[in-house]
Amino acid sequence: MNKKERGERIRRQILLDVGNHASDLTKHIAHKFGITSQAVNHHVQRLERGGWLLSEGRGKGKRYFPGDLRRFEATISLDGDVSEDVLWRESFSHVFEGLSQRVFDICQYAFTEMVNNAIDHSGGEHVTVSVIRDKMFVHIVVVDDGEGIFRKIKRMCGLPDERQALLELSKGKLTTDPEHHTGEGIFFTSRLCDVFEIVSTGVKFCHDDGRPYDFIFATGLAAEDVGTMVSMCIRRDTDRAIQSVFDEFAGPDEYQFTKTVVPVRLAQYEHEKLVSRSQAKRLLLRIDRFKHVIFDFDGVKAIGQAFADEIFRVYAREHPDIALLPVHMAPDVAKMVKRALGQAQ
């Protein structure tokens, strides 16, 4: 371990231990690393200047407290009795203290939902959770060493590939354990965060509240790599509230998840066009679980007649109780949808 790495380790330990050693922090760290109190003070002062630590008093009466900027990381074994709410309460809640109630609630929801997914679904041996609270954002990252979320959904739901698994996941109400889970956690967490990303099996999915549509990237990692990483970013000044997001996707006077947004762009493979009925049928999988389905065509320049017909005439006629609403259509897309709707009359 070089000097820089050792310094980072010491400062990280200071931030981890300040909560339990407010009055003897310097002595505690000096003993733990076998260094002088003067050396510890160098690191403490650096953290104070950066906003990571606060202090009050002087000399032997000096006490230290977590600053406005905070971070914490822990790796937990999944071989045993692990509970996401206990992990939040006993190990991580201090990172979120002092935030607005709105942001605190979003962070708690996102943290517990994604850690629970790793516990219940990953099939892995460990999960590593890291949280960084900087001046503008709260960053939460949950990494497991399991099978990989897209690969597992593909296998358990009999889907043709991981990309289809990702599309189904983006709709919501998808779970590999329907007796114990509703499949709503990832959907709502992604809508509560300003940026939500999942990386697994060489594929990266990104839902960015500041962009018009969801993205899929090739990560450069080998597709056979195992594990899943979920990364969440929440603005500290967000005006988003949990209940308003729930209400957006619930029907009037209902407490059920009745509306979904289908990102049509995710159904495109590479540079292919959406022209066939088979492509449309893949897009339509499981939407009978909703009463209102919004097809978001952002990023789709054109579609074929058969593709539009299968959704807006054939499926609409067979499911008159489901409202199908196309939005963000390019001119060529709008023409095909209008034609299909006209023929459905």
Please tell me about this protein's structure.
- The chain folds into 3 domains: 3-66, Arc Repressor Mutant, subunit A (Orthogonal Bundle); 70-242, 2-Layer Sandwich (Heat Shock Protein 90), CATH 3.30.565.10; 250-343.
- The chain is 41% helix and 21% strand.
- The chain is built from 12 helices and 12 strands.
- It is elongated and about 85 Å long.
- The protein starts with a helix and ends with a helix.
Keywords:
12 strands; Heat Shock Protein 90; 3 domains; three-stranded parallel β-sheet; elongated; 345 residues; single chain; Arc Repressor Mutant, subunit A; alpha+beta
CATH top level of the largest domain? Answer: Alpha Beta
- Based on Cα principal axes, name the global outline: elongated
Integer tally of domains: 3
Structural class: alpha+beta
- Total beta strands: 12
| Average pLDDT rating | 85
Number of helices: 12
| Low-confidence regions | none
What is the helical fraction, as a range of percent?
40-55%
CATH topology term of the largest domain: Heat Shock Protein 90
The ordered string of helix (H) and strand (E) elements is HHHEEEHHEEHHHEEEEHEHEHEH
CATH architecture identity of the largest domain = 2-Layer Sandwich
